[in-house]
Specification:
Elements lengths: L17 H12 L5 E5 L6 H7 L8 E3 L6 H5 E3 L1 H7 L4 E3 L1 H4 L4 E4 L7 H13 L1 E6 L2 E6 L3 E6 L8 H5 L3 E4 L5 H16 L1 H7 L1 H17 L7 H13 L6 H16 L7 H11 L28 H7 L7 H5 L3 H10 L15 E2 L31 E3 L6 E6 L10 H8 L22 E7 L2 E8 L9 H18 L3 E8 L2 E9 L2 H9 L2 E2 L5 H18 L4 E8 L13 H10 L6 E7 L9 H9 L2 E4 L5 H12 L2
Parallel strand pairs: 1-8, 1-9, 2-5, 5-8, 14-15, 14-18, 18-19, 19-20
Antiparallel strand pairs: 3-4, 6-7, 10-17, 11-13, 12-13, 15-16
Length: about 625
């Protein structure tokens, strides 16, 4: 009996994980199910279960590490063959070893997105296309991809999730299951061989079950009625495309075969929906239109005559009684009526504290493309990859250097020189490298991002409690920046100065507290704020080379405190904006002006700064999405 590795628990010894086990069984039975994703928190036995799948099948598990390179994964030039023959030849990669086996990727959500897209394409199509330098080749890759991920680290895009046929969620264990896990783990650590023998019978029964289901699968049929149910379920969850429909049919047929039946039943479809639809659910779909009210079947009965009399006007009382109610009633009314506050107790706009208003899902306001709301609800991780200029970061690819280089890509250099060794005769060295063969490394790292919020906290934003709305919008942007690992700073201007409330930090707790305690009131020293932020961000950008820096100016654009005495504050600000160019820093202007009349000062300010311009309500992704849908719907 083939068995899994001794350092791996048997498949049947894993406690719980019923959905994950069913997903792996379906993938082992059905060759049309090529990708399985196991999602769950840390320590939920996702990896243990995935590697244990080798014990119930004849296939091996081929591990794909996260630090694998493109050439190691997909294939590249066979240097030895090229040096011998002078012709470029293919050296297949790790995917060639996965042919006919199970390809396993742990923490797939941390894998490079471009590389993951290539792996999924190769697995789903069953072929690997290699285009690398002089090498151009294609080879087979008939494999099943089993991947695991912890969504708390970062999530995959909706498109990537859709390309996984099945997705099982690992739930937390209860107290009884934890006790069983501890007992089995102790037994396994004491004597692994004895533990494997203990579950040998169960493993053999599982192998026979999977093998029998593989033979039954070609005979399984599904009715048109159940196919219609599958399509209806996919429409209800808002699944894009038809991958979900196809996966549900294949999964339902596999479940029927595993249960020893040649016909799909309704319970198979229900179980398949659990494995195929949750990760494809579209939370942004519009709610269904309300159903019109049904008309009453019968008209209401006429009220009897005595009720009609009761509904007539009450009999008139004595006029004196109507004009002069009893004194006791007067006294009660006076006690219930709240007293009007004196004028001196009314709030003063010179110093007001507003609570934080409604938060919302923010659009990608830093993107240079058209504004579109993000499809995923929790997209974590830093914003983008950037080429490193200081020799640090991940070695991503090679290139021909422009001049002298100190970071030589030796692998790429040898590959470039290998085909020419037969004509470069030398008795002293085994490999002759010339200047044109030299390649340098291109390194990439996650690009940092610093956002300095420059907030107008003057009295004009206290009118109609606009500051509560502004705080809610800023907190929404702060939270969005936090999950993308940005540094966040806060500078506020009011009265006659601009103060740094919070230097750039990665702590959202400090940001929230400073924002909550930010007072509002006084005049608007916008000119002073521009001078202060220019000085600060100029020095900051010089000390953080390669980091993307943004200043998000939240204001209505109106100023009333000039730098030069006697000058018009608004004209001064507009003139300063034309020269406000900080190297390495981009500007974003958020117009906090609301209501009527609305002034265009903030828009003009953004135009002269060359900044991206938003109105406060434009940052709400849900509201923006609703507006787009309303605009395109006939």
């Amino acid at each position: 009996m083939p068995a899994g590795p001794v350092n791996s628990l048997p498949f049947t010894a894993v406690v719980g994980m019923d959905d994950a086990k069913r997903a792996l069984e379906c993938a082992l039975v059905n060759p049309n199910i090529r990708t399985v994703l196991l999602r769950g928190g840390g320590g939920t036995a996702k990896t243990v279960l995935a590697r244990a799948a080798a014990g119930i099948t004849d296939r091996k598990v081929v591990n794909c590490p996260l630090n694998v390179t493109d050439e190691q994964l997909f294939g590249g030039m066979d240097i030895e063959e090229a040096m011998k023959t002078g012709r470029p030849a293919l050296q297949p990669g790790l995917l060639a070893r996965a042919d006919g086996n199970i390809l396993y990727i742990d923490d797939v959500n941390l894998m490079d997105r471009g590389m993951l897209a290539g792996v999924l394409d190769a697995v789903l199509t069953g072929t690997v296309h290699v285009e690398r330098g002089p090498v151009s080749a294609v080879y087979r890759c008939d494999t099943t991809l089993v991947a695991t991920m912890n969504p708390e680290d970062s999530d995959l895009s909706a498109h990537m999730l859709d390309r996984f046929d099945l997705c099982a969620y690992a739930s937390e264990c209860d107290a009884e299951q934890r006790h069983t896990i501890l007992t089995r783990n102790a037994e396994f650590c004491d004597d692994p061989s004895r533990f494997m023998d203990l579950y040998g019978k169960d493993e053999e029964e599982e192998r026979v079950k999977v093998g029998r289901a593989s033979k039954i699968l070609p005979l399984v049929t599904i009715s048109d009625e159940l196919v219609s149910v599958i399509s209806e379920l996919c429409v209800k969850v808002g699944a894009d495309g038809v991958r979900g429909d196809i996966a549900m049919v294949e999964c339902a047929e596999s479940l029927a075969a595993l249960n020893g039946r040649d016909e799909v039943m309704r319970k198979d479809v229900e179980e398949a929906a659990v494995l195929c639809l949750p990760h494809r659910r579209n939370y942004d779909q519009p709610p269904p239109p309300p159903q019109p009210p049904e008309p009453p079947e019968e008209p209401p009965e006429e009220p009897p005559d005595d009720e009609e009399e009761d509904r007539q006007d009450p009999p008139r009382d004595d006029p004196d009684e109507r004009r002069d109610p009893p004194e006791e009633e007067h006294e009660d009314e006076e006690e219930e009526k709240p007293p009007e506050p004196p004028m001196q107790d009314m709030p003063d706009l010179e110093e007001m504290m507003f609570e934080i208003g409604r938060q919302f899902r923010v659009i990608d306001y830093l993107d240079t493309r058209d504004r579109v709301p993000s499809r995923t609800k929790t997209r974590k991780g830093r914003r983008a990859m950037a080429v490193s200029a200081d020799g640090t970061g991940r070695y991503a690819r090679s290139r021909i250097p422009d001049g002298r280089t100190e970071d030589i890509a030796f692998d790429a250099t040898i590959r470039a020189a290998a085909p020419y060794q037969r004509v470069r005769h030398s008795d002293d060295v085994a490999l002759v490298i010339e200047k044109q063969d030299i390649r340098e490394k291109v390194r990439e790292r996650r690009s940092g991002c610093t956002l300095l919020f420059l907030v107008d906290a003057s009295g004009s934003l206290g009118v109609r409690k606009r500051m509560a709305t502004v705080k809610g919008a800023i907190l929404s942007m702060l939270r969005d920046s936090y999950v993308k690992r940005d540094r966040i700073g806060l500078m506020a201007f009011r009265r006659d100065s601009a103060d740094m409330i919070l230097p750039p930090t990665k702590s959202v707790e400090y940001s929230y507290k400073c924002l909550e305690e930010l007072p509002t009131g006084g005049k608007t020293p916008l000119s002073e704020a521009l001078v202060r932020v220019d000085e600060y961000m100029t020095a900051y950008a010089r000390c953080h080379v390669g980091e993307r820096c943004f200043v998000i100016l939240v204001t209505d654009g109106r100023a009333n405190v000039p730098l030069r005495e006697g000058a018009d504050a608004n004209d001064e600000v507009q003139k300063m904006a034309e020269d406000m160019k900080i190297p390495g820093v981009k500007w974003i202007v958020v117009d906090a002006g609301m209501g009527f009349p609305h002034f265009d000062n903030a828009r003009m300010l953004a135009e002269k700064m060359g900044a991206r311009y938003f109105k406060l309500e434009d940052l709400d992704a849900d509201r923006f999405a609703e507006g787009v849908k309303a605009a395109i719907d006939p």
